[in-house]
Design a protein that fits this description.
It is found in: Membrane. GO terms for molecular function: integrin binding. This protein is mainly β. It contains 1 helix and 27 strands.
Length: 459
């Protein structure tokens, strides 16, 4: 219970009266109206009260005569669980002159002195043990951030940093949310009252959820309708040497190919005394396309014939040797490539052996799931129809097969023939000979913030 006693001084004008003009038994007194108010703060935001009146905070007082004092009391009750524990609670009384009794029309109407304020203000000081001896709290808040991916291990969420060696995080937009981990410390500072973190997101990111450490007080956040402005209460107060860590989960569906980086503005606020400047959380954006490559040989084993045929005597593909098909299946696990880039299947084709003799003759190629675009160089496919020969000295030639319009899956088939003569002349003593075709994937004409994650295939 708090007892407030307010004293006021009243000056009456005129302070001299000619009693010869009045009847001796005529007495005049003044009625004074009063109104108490408490915890009225100058703010555009309506704040909840911290005290309440026990009884009616207004009334009347009768002043019976000159230089006579009369008093009144009002009781206040301190409310519980209010947030503003730092600022004093103002209590004020406002006075006005009411109607007086035994008044005549010949008398001068009294008014309060215009040069004397009609209200008095006193304050209740709230003592805070976590502040200095002067009851002023000087906090030492610091904010650190880190972009993370969220993983689940043993039923618990684990956050792993996305920062590179240069300290800058790289975001890869996927269907999974990313986490912005925020850590606020108050090392060596006085209590930080009503500490908040204001998080302003760009239009490319949206709020999804808040994850805080179970051992710490729960972080209380509100979000605007667009999901781009997050206001989080971190503690009241954050005490000296305390630390608060929480993660803001963000969706990346709004990131487009033109987005090279994202900038998030972080602003700490506290009613304690500290000059806090905004922090910019920056992360690069990199699109990683998830393509998988599988290879298959049909048939997996072949045998070469017994007759020797020179190049000049070959009349058809069947004269060259046994047919072998190399199938490469490409699976796209991410977004469709139709709208922004093209991929290419790159094959290291074992055209000749070390002696320069033909091994595999590539007769033609076919594809499914992509646009019909021929592989290149075209002079390495069905070579017999062209008089040109390979003059660059390479034993393997690289074949490029465009995968234009790749959506979900595609297949490229290379139809080839074993060069029978070469195998009879150079490898007839071998019980087993494996010929490997290496294949890789690459992107063509892609934006600089787009890359490929795929495995090399062997067949």
């Amino acid at each position: 219970m708090i007892n407030i006693r307010v004293s006021s001084t009243l000056r009456v004008t005129p302070d001299k009266i000619d009693i010869t003009k009045e009847q001796c038994d005529k007495r005049t007194w003044y009625v004074l109206n009063y109104t108490f108010e408490a915890d009225i703060r100058k703010s555009n935001v309506r704040l909840p009260p911290r005290v309440g009146f026990l009884g009616v905070p207004r009334g009347k007082l009768e002043l019976p005569g000159q230089d006579m004092e009369i008093c009144t009391d009002i009781k206040l009750r301190l409310l519980r669980d209010f947030k503003d524990r730092l600022h004093s609670i103002p209590v004020s009384v406002t006075m006005s002159l009411g109607s007086s009794t035994q008044w005549t029309s010949e008398q001068v109407t009294p008014i309060l002195d215009r040069f004397q304020p009609n209200n008095k203000v006193s304050e209740i000081t709230l003592l805070n043990r976590g502040c200095g001896s002067d009851n002023i709290c000087q906090s030492n808040l610091h904010l650190q951030y880190d972009f993370c991916s969220r993983q689940t291990e043993n039923g618990k969420s684990v956050f792993r940093s996305l920062s590179g060696e240069d300290g800058v995080a790289v975001i890869t937009p996927t269907e999974e949310d990313i986490a912005l981990e925020l850590t606020v410390t108050n090392w060596g500072g006085d209590d930080a009252h009503q500490t908040r973190s204001i998080i302003s997101l760009p239009d490319t990111l949206r709020y999804s959820d808040i994850v805080s450490t179970a051992s710490e007080p729960k972080v209380d956040c509100t979000v605007n309708d667009k999901g781009t402005l997050i206001d989080c209460g971190l503690g009241n107060p954050i005490q000296r040497d305390a630390e608060v860590t929480f993660c803001v989960m963000l969706t990346t569906s709004g990131i487009s190919l033109s987005t090279k980086a994202v900038n998030i503005t972080l602003q700490l606020q506290t009613t304690s005394r500290q000059d806090l400047k905004p922090v910019e959380a920056v992360a690069k954006v990199f699109f990683e396309l998830k393509l998988q490559l599988y290879g298959l040989t049909r048939p997996s084993q072949v045998s070469f014939g017994q007759s020797l045929e020179g190049k000049s005597t070959i009349k058809s593909a069947e004269d060259i040797g046994a047919a072998v098909q190399y199938e490469f299946r490409i699976t796209n696990l991410g977004r469709s490539l139709k709208s922004f880039t093209n991929a290419s299947l790159n094959l290291f084709w074992p055209k000749e052996n070390s002696a320069g003799k033909w091994l595999l003759y590539l007769s033609h190629t076919s594809s499914k799931g992509v646009q019909s675009v021929p592989c290149s160089p075209v002079n390495e496919i069905d070579h017999l129809k062209d008089v040109k020969t390979c003059t660059d000295g390479l034993r393997c030639v690289e074949i490029y097969c465009p995968l234009q319009g790749l959506d979900s899956t595609a297949m490229v088939v290379l139809h080839s023939r074993l060069w029978n003569t070469t195998f009879l002349e150079d490898y007839s003593s071998f019980n087993y000979l494996m010929i490997t075709v290496d294949a890789t994937l690459s992107l063509t004409n892609s934006p600089e913030n787009t890359g490929l994650k795929s495995d090399k295939a062997h067949r």
